[in-house]
Write a structure and sequence with these properties.
Helix content: 25-40%
CATH class of the largest domain: Alpha Beta
Protein name: Serine hydrolase
Organism: Sphingobacterium phlebotomi
Keywords: Hydrolase
Strand order of the largest sheet: 5-4-17-16-15-14-13
Order of helices and strands: HHEEEHEEEHHEHHEHHEEHEEHEEEEEH
CATH architecture of the largest domain: 3-Layer(aba) Sandwich
Distance between the termini: 63 Å
Strand content: 15-25%
Number of helices: 12
CATH topology of the largest domain: Beta-lactamase
Number of domains: 2
Structural class: alpha+beta
GO molecular function: hydrolase activity
Radius of gyration: 21 Å
Pfam family, one: Beta-lactamase
Shape: globular
Length: 368
């Protein structure tokens, strides 16, 4: 018994000692959580001096009960039981539904996870318009020359945007020795990127990987030179959109850290909704073109040329026939946009709870 206790104590001390390294973090935290913004260093993205707010609809449309195997369940109850922490429905710039659950409220910060991929796409489009990046057809080795030795000369920015780079990347979230754990819990993304290799010919196959978007992040950081990705987001999007709250972007390390651009933009539900509103209006915000209109259209249209796929384009997911588009995170985080209904839906949660959220959100959008 004493021997077992010593082993347990030793393991516990080892975990505490190695908490700062990838494996230690993986063992200690076990799996990604919407509160992970508390465990990583970060940069702050300041809010606007004059925030934009969505008014509440005078006569909000009630949402129907949800059919389950145990009978119909009130919509609010269903959301609470499925570990949802925030749910917003905004149509015609008015809040039709806004509820928070499980001790969360409108001021609660939530990790975006892979919804951040869509945001980095916005910034790439803006950087091209600003002349900081020449074209999506540029090889990424123009910005990351150290990857030439790994055969990345043929990989273009467009390949990264469309997830057709041919990158060899283990996306498993349960393997502590895989790429995903290294990129999420590791403390040196630049070093990890230098070790990346290709497994397929660039432009030949769609393969969704977080490493691909992190490469986009390093391309952007190099293109910005002295400005950080977070400060660029603040200048170009966060303040112009009148965000109500500060946001943070998690870094790999405190000193000279690199933003985890494949994930980890931490913000509030209403501000996530404003990102959807920006793309709902083709990159225009109350008369000011924030993201080039053509970039938004390229990002949200179905295109199968160059071995791209019809359901994904420039770091945005598309529904069938590209009638709607959305940003998506691993635990069921969604920014869903339906241009035909002038509708935005945001769902943030602690878990997916095995719910097909895309199907449910699509049904809700159809009901409006």
């Amino acid at each position: 018994m004493k021997s077992t206790t010593k082993i347990i104590c030793s393991l516990f001390l080892c975990v505490l000692f190695f908490q700062s390294c990838k494996l230690g973090r993986f063992v200690f935290y076990n799996f990604a959580n919407i509160t992970d913004h508390k465990i990583f260093p970060y940069r702050t993205i300041e809010n606007a001096a004059s925030p934009f707010t969505f008014p509440v609809a005078q006569k909000p449309k009630p949402l129907k009960d949800i059919e389950t195997s145990e009978g119909d369940v009130p919509f609010d109850t269903y959301l609470e039981h499925t570990k949802t922490v925030a749910f917003l429905v905004i149509q015609n710039d008015s809040i039709q539904y806004e509820k928070y659950f499980n001790k969360y409220e409108d001021e609660s910060i939530v990790a975006s996870f892979s919804m951040a991929k869509s945001v980095i796409s916005m910034l790439i489009g803006i950087a091209i318009a600003d002349g900081k990046i020449q074209s999506v057809d540029e090889p990424i080795t123009n910005y990351i020359p150290e990857l030439k030795r790994n055969g990345f000369d043929a990989v273009t920015i467009k390949h990264l945007l469309q997830m057709t780079s041919g990158l060899d990347f283990n996306e498993s979230y349960t393997n502590p020795f895989g790429h995903a754990a290294t990129f999420y819990y590791g403390t040196n993304l630049r070093k990890a990127i230098n070790k990346l290799k290709l497994k397929d010919v660039p432009g030949e196959k769609f393969d969704y990987t977080s490493g691909t978007t992190q490469l986009l992040g390093l391309v952007l950081e190099r293109a910005l030179e002295s400005q950080t990705i977070s400060s660029y987001l603040e200048e170009k999007i966060w303040k112009p959109l009148g965000m109500e709250y500060d946001a943070t972007w998690s870094l790999d390390r405190k000193k000279d850290g690199l933003e985890k651009t494949f994930c980890c933009l931490n913000a509030r539900a209403r501000d996530f909704a404003k990102l959807g509103r920006l793309y709902l209006h083709n990159g225009n915000w109350n008369g000011t073109q924030i993201v080039p209109e053509q970039w938004v259209k390229e990002s949200t249209k179905s295109d199968t040329t160059g071995h791209s796929v019809p359901f994904y384009q420039y770091q945005w997911w598309l529904t069938k026939n590209a009638e709607q588009f959305y940003a998506k995170g691993i635990l069921g985080q969604y920014i869903f946009v339906d241009p035909h209904k002038n509708l935005i839906i945001v769902r943030l949660g602690e878990k997916t709870s095995k719910v097909n959220w895309l199907k449910l959100i699509s049904q809700i959008a159809h009901s409006y």
